[in-house]
Write a structure and sequence with these properties.
The chain is built from three helices and 24 strands. By secondary structure, it is mainly beta. The strands form seven sheets. It has a six-stranded antiparallel barrel with strand order 6-8-11-10-9-13. Strands 15-17-22-21-18-24 form a six-stranded antiparallel beta barrel.
Amino acid sequence: MKKILLVLLLFIAYGASSPTLAQNSEPVLPSSDGRTVKLSPQVRIIKREYRIPTIQVEQIQQFFNRPKLITEEEINDAGRIITNANQSLLSTKGFRIYVSGLNEAASVGSRYMIVRMGQTYRSPLDGEEGEVLAYEAIYLGEAALDIPGEPATLNITSATREIKNGDRLLPVEERGFQEDFYPHSPTLLEDAYIIAVIDGTGSLIGKYQIVIINKGSNDDIERGHVLAVNNGSRFIRELYEEEIILPQQRVGSLLVFRVFEYVSYALVMKSNLPIRLLDEVTVP
């Protein structure tokens, strides 16, 4: 069928002229002005783009403009809500709040995310056990700067849940999301594990869920890295109460879409078997 199609295209392009073979066995075609047109094979390199399906884009979009992971340094630099104009414990959209620790050089109208500190993500590695890699920042809403100073006065412009005194403020960063990912893999990856799952229930992880791995830019992890997931060695107890270690097996794959210094967000692209917390992440 392909040969028939090729002949048909040549017929349309050059009329009814019949191609002939030159002495070097390369095809030639007579042109309309009597010249001989020599056909030789050529190689074209076409850049292949990898587009994440829309359903997956929607799932990860919020992780670009609403960081759920922050460092200790960012916590120290974040503003803190002292109280609101009503001097009540809780605030919501439309409330006027007073915040300490904001950059006094910030201009009126500057936007801030309001976050609450969540769980702490720690290294699972022996020798590093307990070392803090990042902190969870739970998104609560946004506020706009009205009067700079110490404390500064802001108006809450949106709220996804109740806001409390002591919650933190971070500048809004409009990162934007680039849909084109160019998948590639690192040449080396050691001691990498899934340390958390976002918005998951229990320890089982499935396709299109978002996980956190304990490797980031400090370990040369890059946006677009494709990684394999192997289940950890499992112990089973035999009939005669003998413990047996089952061998590892490939259970899925990840696509890294945002990288921090010590951790990264990754989307589960494939899940052959249930993925679990502390499963190993390796080079495919």
